[in-house]
Design brief:
With 153 residues, the chain is mainly alpha-helical. It has helices at 2-5, 10-13, 24-43, 48-51, 54-58, 73-78, 83-101, 123-151, and strands spanning 112-114, 121-122. The chain has a two-stranded antiparallel ribbon. The two termini are 20 Å apart.
């Protein structure tokens, strides 16, 4: 993740390819929030967003549980954060993920983690979902960075 945001100014991190486009800042914040939220729920633990004070450091105008789903273009604009803050939150989330996944067994992958769906979501499906979401958004952020680098913004 660091290579996606490293060396970019807050202005560059908030660049929008068009008025409705997501920014690198929002994409990195969102993918980190989804990983933090979904894995904390799956393992019955607290999110580092709350316990490690990232909520206060980012000082976003959202509810503490917000993670980006359903955000408007105005909400995307509200995520203004520097590269270090974004990378540090992502790194903290990643470290929590590694701790949570260390030692799980094949049998754990079949454990139901979300009964709000029909059929209920098992851990293996939730992990694949988070990985897919994160890969999609980091790819989008890298694409936007490429646009910035070619346009000299």
């Amino acid at each position: 993740m660091t290579t996606t945001v490293d060396g970019l100014s807050t202005q560059q991190l908030c660049y929008r390819a068009d008025p409705q486009a997501n920014t690198i800042a929002w994409l990195v914040w969102h993918l980190s929030r989804i990983q933090d939220d979904h894995l904390a729920a799956a393992f019955g633990t607290e999110q580092v967003w709350i316990t490690d004070g990232w909520l206060d450091r980012f000082a976003l105008p959202f509810e503490p549980a917000a993670h980006g789903y359903g955000h408007t273009t105005e909400d995307v604009s509200a995520v203004r954060a520097g590269a270090d803050l974004l990378a540090d939150y992502h790194d903290a989330t990643h470290a929590q993920t590694v701790r949570l996944l260390t030692g799980i067994s094949d049998a754990d992958l079949d454990r139901i983690v979300d009964e709000r769906w029909d059929p209920p979501v098992i851990l293996g499906v939730r992990l694949v979902s988070v990985i897919g979401d994160d890969l999609q958004h980091v790819g989008q952020a890298a694409f936007i960075r490429g646009l910035l680098e070619r346009s000299n913004n």
